[in-house]
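Hi C.,

You asked whether I'd gotten around to modeling the 598-residue construct. I have! Everything is below, sequence then structure, no commentary in between.
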Amino acid sequence: MKKHICDRLETLRKMMKEKGVMYYYITTADYHNSEYADDYFKEREFMSGFTGSNGNLLIEEDKAGLWTDGRYFIQAEKELEGTGITLFRMAEEGVPTVTEYLEQNMKDGDVLAFDGRTVNTRLGQQMEEIVEKKQGKILYQIDYVDDIWKERPTRKCNEVFTLDEKICGKTVAEKLDMVRAAMDKKNCQNLVLSKMDDIMWLFNIRGRDVECNPVALSYAVITKENSYLFLQENAVTEEVKSWIKGQPVVLMDYEKIMEFLQQQTWQGAVLLDEGNISYAIYKLVKESAEVIFGDNPTELLKAMKNEVELQMMREVYKKDSLVVCRFMKWLKENIGKIPMTELSAAEYMDHLRKNTEGFIDLSFPTICGYKENAAMMHYQATEDNHKELAPEGMLLIDCGGQYLGGTTDVTRTFALGPVSDEIKVHYTAVAMGMLRLSNAKFLYGCTGRNLDILARGPLWDMNIDYKCGTGHGIGYILNVHEGPQNVRWRFMEGMKEAVLEEGMVLSNEPGVYIADSHGIRTENIMVTKNAEKNGDGQFMCFENLTFAPIDLDLIDTTIMERKDIENLNRYHKKVYEKIAPLMTKEEAAWLKEVTREI
């Protein structure tokens, strides 16, 4: 495999030399800046061997670098070994960003090339400024990798399906009115959308073009008078065509988006989200229209779940929490008695979820890491590389589902047998932080930056940190990672910081990751709610959606404050109240024991 990577890099460098290109940049993204791209778009993985969901590759004549975040440092070190590609650990002290690296290393007259369909406008403009300073040149209509990738997978084109208004809570017409009202506030008469989950939300449709994300390859253009939806022709059934005829929507061919934008006679300014719209689209639109940069209105509207969506999610999360409880019971009762591996444990969890009413798909491939493998945040066991489980140490499992009524995400770490006292202390600190954040009361206007220390505090007291955010937004029958809301203390360039609004759904997932030793993560999902309002302002709180036990076999009460013990007991009481009615008598008796008061 490593030789293949070296051969591919050598071939690409020959192509660069022929065109006078000194730097070639490859992103993780597809044409829609998606976090998880379909196999067709995985050029960075093809050229580097790094399989993580976030990473960007810069290739030069005699070297190459890959930039990724703290979730993937351990994984990237292993996967890049022997390729000659240098790992740049994003946000670490002394590590330049890609743009800083280019500014420091490009010589006058150098040529930088990339596929402008896969680079967002913000980054494209930054690179443009650097190249102009160096009196160089950008080539953004080049895809060298396509010429090298002889057995490239075909681009997905699966049938889209519609969602009933009873599931969405609002009609397409109502959502378009909301979007146009937001456009008016920005003095924009037109909006170009390429973010697939935003488009799915706006038009009450879903697709199957990206693994685990129910989205369809699509674009949309919204004007004051019309809305245009661009879908692959073969993805649209006669039933969907008939449904669209009853909507205020003009159906267009996905392949015609660039031609449409080129021919469009714009009336007024065009709103583009520079962090999501591709550099190629931006360059085309700005030729014939005034461009105003701003967040897609759909992003915030989508993030603030309406009461129909929230009620559907509450029911879905109870069913999904039942899955986690049943997995925990099976795991605890069978470890050491039947053969188990990371793969078979993940498959059993997936089996339970797939047999749950309303299940559509997993929301991401299940992460199941035993002992030191759990220290890699997004570790994936494979047929060629996985561990057998034994009645000792810990198993971390991070998983979720797409249901007709919600998207779920949950992580639990379970003791399979004896663990060290240090591990128990780490586990307890993670549980304490998760529950402290769950029980937060805060004034409206706070962002996740204000709250992050509640989750990290018990770990920071021990001089321990985790190199990722504490929480991300969750979609509604959509992407498991959704913005603009999040919980983190540090915001890198391009990250959005949003006020926590009522109806926003967030993950809450502190952790400990000790390389070559152990990994711990405990993750619940919660929704932001209005609490009391008085002369001091509108107070806010969180409502838990996840009701799965925290493993008492790993709790060390000696490091807990009284309020932390009360938090845990109160949470476990709720777990029993919510889930026991869905269980058999035997299961309920087991649940009573594992959620006992301590």
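If it helps when you're writing up: Residues 2-148 form a domain with the Creatine Amidinohydrolase; Chain A, domain 1 fold (CATH 3.40.350.10).

Thanks,
B.
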